[in-house]
Every structure is written in C-alpha cells, then in structure tokens.
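Example record

Each entry pairs one chain with its bound ligand, zinc ion.
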Amino acid sequence: MLACDDDGGSTAMDASTGASGSGTSSASASGSTASGASSVTGSSSVGTDSTSSDATGSGPGESDTVGSTGSTGGLHPAFAEFDADNFTIMLDGDEVVLESNGLPNHVSPYWSNTTARASPDGMGPATPAAKEDHPLFVAPTATSFDSMAPGNIDDFMGSFELRVPVAPTLADTSTATGLGPIGMAVSGSMIYNDEEGPNVPLENAVGSLDFTAAHTGPQSYHYHLEPKAWSDDDDALIGVMADGFFLYGRRCNSTGDYPDDLDVSGGHESTTQHANAAEYHYHIQNDAYLNEYYLLFPGDYQGTAAGIQ
Ligand SMILES: [Zn+2]
Ligand SMILES: [Zn+2]
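Structure tokens for the complex follow.
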C-alpha cells in the first residue's frame, strides 16, 4: 500500500487494498465493514435460504435427490463460507454467479516480498523483489525461495467468473477435468487438478508448493492438494467445483469420519453441515499421494461443468 502512494496507480492500488483488506478480515472480525456491501445480496439470500430450506426439508420434499435448496430457488447456505472480500456471489435466475479476484484470504510465501527469485531451472521469468513485504507474506517453509514458481500472488490483476446451477444434478456421463481452474476455493483462489501442465506431472512441481499446497502459475495462485490453511483432516468446506457441487475435506460432517461410500470422483450423497437433506457433494479422498499429501480433485466431474472464465 505504501508502495502505491507515490503514483496512485489505480489497478495496483485496488489490488493491494483488496488484498490487505481480506487479510484484515480473516485475521480479525472486521470483514463486515467496508466490502460487506458487495456481498449483502449474497449474505441476505443465504440467511433467507437457511430458513426456507428448513421448511423444504419438512415440506414437499421434491428435491431430496440432489440439493435441499433446489425447490426454494435460494442461494445454498454453503456459499456463506466464501470469502466476502474476494468473492461476489449473486443469484441470476436458476444460476449462481461467482466472481472472484483470484486472491487467497490467507498468508503465503507467494505474496510479494523483498526477496528476488531467480528463474527456477530456467523455466519462466525471474521474480523481482518488492520494496516491502505484503502484509500477508510469510517466509517459505514447505518450499524455498529457490524452489518457488515464478510470479507473486498480487501480480494477478484479473478475475474469474463461474456460473453454476442453483440445484446442480448428476450428469449421465462423467467428464474429465482440464488444465487451469476446475473449481473455486472458499479463500478466493482457484482449485486445480492433479496435473501441473501439458505432460507435466504434479510430482515435478510439488517442491514449489507452499504450506497450503498452492503456488503461482501461468495464471494465478492455485491449490492442487489439501489446503492446510483451512483444512487438515477435517470436514471443512474447500470450495465449489465447476459443475456446481461442493468439495469438502477428507471427513464427512454426517459421520465425522472418512466416508466409505465414495464414487470414483470422491463424491457421495449425504447430509452436510450445510444441508439437512442428503445431497451430492465431493470429498478430498483419504488416499495418501506421495505418502504425505492428499489430492484435491483427481477425478472427473460427475455433474455438468461450466467453464471458469
Ligand atoms: Zn500448479
Ligand atoms: Zn460427505
């Protein structure tokens, strides 16, 4: 922020203001002050919906296959967990529109900092030092400055949009995920699959992942593995996949344990902390990857995926 004071460059200013704002709100309780306005629609819909979904549960029960909220047309209560500073979430007819600035609401060594990084193994550009550390910067632990991928989180000035059905349904056939964003995490950043690039297995890039299994890439900061920043062997909401189904941590709230009825994509139908009626959702599968990690979403979409633009 101080770095922006001299010229008042609008985009840089916006980005760093937004980023530090999100840091403030995640560290303290001030999230409902300034940027609350943009998410008022989402929050109030969520509030309304939690009431009406109770009514649905004991009411017509027409949507007990997938989604307790389908018949109400309201915003699913799980969307209340998405970072209010980094996301704008709106209802548009029978679709939910998620817009994200791509920035995570937590610390990382990938925020701009005063340590310049050389081009890693000659791949990608070098990353110059910033004048000061971003407020959410922390020194690398799981990775090192020498192993980190090129680019910093706050270099990203774009945005992402995803439109999913209010009440997603299972498709007749599953479809493979692709490179790039395949889901949106509650933090604001994107979810990727188990490949790093065309013909580049994730194994080759694991050394560049930070403590929460994320790194920067050709586009923005993204997660490949269980994100320890907010989920570690628990039932936390991870995010929403591009087919509209939610992704949870390794445990299911319905039992408190690892589900034993998951399909090939890590999905099953049960209640969650956000749904009193059973609904389809995914889990991070409790299968160790490289003996110590858990892949976020190595399988196919079981619903109909929309593109994340
Ligand atoms: Zn990656
Ligand atoms: Zn579950």
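Helices lie at 10-27, 40-58.
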